[in-house]
Write a structure and sequence with these properties.
By secondary structure, the protein is of the alpha/beta class. The protein has helices spanning 26-30, 54-59, 87-104, 117-135, 138-148, 157-176, 213-216, and strands spanning 15-20, 37-42, 67-72, 111-115, 180-185, 187-193, 200-207, 223-230, 237-241. It is 33% helix and 23% strand. A 7-stranded mixed beta sheet has the order 3-2-4-5-1-8-9. It has a two-stranded antiparallel sheet with strand order 6-7. α4 crosses α6. The protein is globular and about 60 Å long.
């Protein structure tokens, strides 16, 4: 049934996709999200160090005591390979637990920040490869095991499809929550090199997702923010851009 458009629409939850290079201010900006903030750090707790920096705490003292976080990373062996891909499921479990604490009123939050999708893609790929290995035919499994015994894991085409499916599922889940949502990721650059001069020209900058998801995932969000810096040291300038076809095509 059609509804009358009125000022109540302003209270709708906002959804943001923030992308840019390391150190461009993505996490700093995420710390200014409305109300109480829950940050899911993927890759380790170091992702939220910015929010304890003197620069942030002096500019936003009212956020003190309003930010909680969980961190998750894959449990890797001595040579950096995983025996069981538990990271992606751990992300889901932590978010489930945070939502339960929110519902109970024990640790409520208004804004969800996932920092960031680059690490989440790695966890999703690990899970996808584990499923591929578990369901592979005996001949293929034997071949794959030879590589795995040496700590080498080579993604197959289906693994990339599986990773994209898991990412889409997770992002849609977060998007559907009655929370302000900020998904942080790095930047992917499409480049072209001049064969004569070997100079590289950047053709476009997009959020760092796999394949067609560089275009499809941003379309979900109200605002797609591209973060960048200019200058250096004391003259460093931080910029956030929300428009321009050269940024997101």
């Amino acid at each position: 049934m059609p509804q009358l458009l009125n000022s109540s629409i302003i209270t709708e939850r906002s959804k943001y996709l923030s992308f840019g290079h390391m150190g461009s201010g993505k996490t700093f900006a995420a710390g200014t999200m409305p109300g109480r903030i829950y940050v899911l750090c993927i890759g380790g707790a170091n992702e939220v160090i910015t929010l304890m920096s003197p620069d942030f705490t002096s500019k936003h003292p009212r956020k003190k005591g309003l930010i909680t976080y969980d961190s998750v990373k894959e449990n890797l062996g001595k040579r950096g390979s995983f025996s069981q891909a538990m990271g992606y499921d751990a992300c889901c479990d932590l978010l489930d637990a945070a939502l339960e604490l929110d519902r109970s009123g024990e640790t409520p939050f208004d804004s969800l920040v996932v920092d960031g999708s680059t690490g989440l893609r790695g966890l999703a790929m690990n899970k996808s490869m584990e499923i591929t290995y578990a369901t592979a035919k005996s001949v293929d499994k034997s071949s794959m095991k030879k590589f795995m015994d040496h700590g080498i894991i080579i993604p197959q085409d289906n693994d990339y499809f599986g990773e994209q499916s898991l990412i889409w599922k997770f992002v849609n889940w977060c998007f559907s929550l009655d929370k302000h949502f900020n998904l942080i990721t790095h930047v992917w650059e499409a480049t072209k090199q001049n064969r004569a001069t070997r100079e590289t020209t950047i053709l476009s900058k997009k959020p760092s997702f796999t394949g067609k998801q560089r275009a499809s995932i941003p379309t979900l969000f109200d605002n797609v923010w591209y973060f960048s810096t200019s200058g250096g040291k004391k003259s460093m300038q931080y910029e956030a851009q929300t428009q321009g076809d050269e940024i997101v095509e």
